[in-house]
Write a structure and sequence with these properties.
about 170 residues, globular
Length: about 170
Amino acid sequence: MRARGVHGGKSRRADTEDGHGELTAVQAALAAEHAAVYGYGVVGGRIAGDRRKEAQAAYDGHRARRDALRRLVRDLGGTPRAAAAAYELPFPVPDAAAALRLAAELEDRLAAVYADLVRAGGPARRTEAAAALREAAVRSVRWRGSGVAFPGLVERAAAAAPSGDASASAGAL
């Protein structure tokens, strides 16, 4: 879900100043929001009661953020990435307990992407990305029941560790 841009010979600062790094990070956030919208469709289908209302609110919030990111990509001169037809879930989601874990995982991954956007964005974008990171971290805590010290960095550490997983595909959550 995270953007991994190729910076070539340019410094990261030059990349951000010319907008390329920012556009890459915004596109990554858009892709993550597409995945979250899909994932919350699965979550909402597996839980009931008040938690379902919470999932609906998260779904609506992610749709709104996705739409805003589409506009932002256009404003930055890019073409918004389209959503995949389907996404591979990180684990089976047969019941409500698994749906809660999925919701927390979605928010953790979003926090990581927004942490990247905080780094890559200009001042206005940083503020928006920090707010999105905070919202994802709060939602993750609500779904999981506990939090982490530095939201958005846990995903980065997990991605750096060797794993037996196949390489991440564009259609993976």
